[in-house]
Design goal:
Elements: H1 2-22, E1 37-45, E2 51-60, E3 63-72, E4 75-85, E5 91-102, E6 105-112, E7 115-121, E8 124-137, E9 141-154, E10 159-163, H2 167-176, E11 180-190
Antiparallel strand pairs: 1-2, 1-11, 2-3, 3-4, 4-5, 5-8, 6-7, 7-10, 8-9, 9-11
Amino acid sequence: MKKIYATAALLLGLSISSFAFTNPHLKLKPELGDTKHGIAIVTGFGTPYGIGLEYAYRLTQKLDLTVGGGQSISGFRGGLGARFFLRDKAFSPFIAGNLIYSSGIDGLEFDANGTIATYDMPSRVAGFAKVGLKLGIGKHVALMGAVGYAQPLVNSQPVLVSGTDTDLHRTAMEVTNLGGVELSTALQIRF
């Protein structure tokens, strides 16, 4: 499993790097200027906010404090985080963490090979740790990609309401619940 994470991180880094350095029309700025605020659209697999928005406040040239929210299969997600950039340049690796709450959802139905099961997914809290790359494009736009892992801090398990509980259903519930592997991308506008 560690090999998969390392391969995903390497591919993400190489794809962003090759895009940044082979695109002749791309103008990289040494930094994102004096912008203190940013709004990002975040999406991916296992992301802290599902599909959502993140607000970032630049506390120092290398540290962003973040707050965000969004929707996922497991309900509304919201939380706080921080992102530390290792370089004060347009192209920079970063490390980040989030503390996320998921509201849970009732009546989540899964159909696996004709076998239907309905679950109530309770609320959950998880801590995220990740590494990623930021690519600043111009003065006000940044692309970011991250690979990480979320550890549930409140390990509430889904409850079977009706139907047959199979291994395939349990795997689907585990994948859609808050926690596990994160592969995310974000498009950020700074102002």
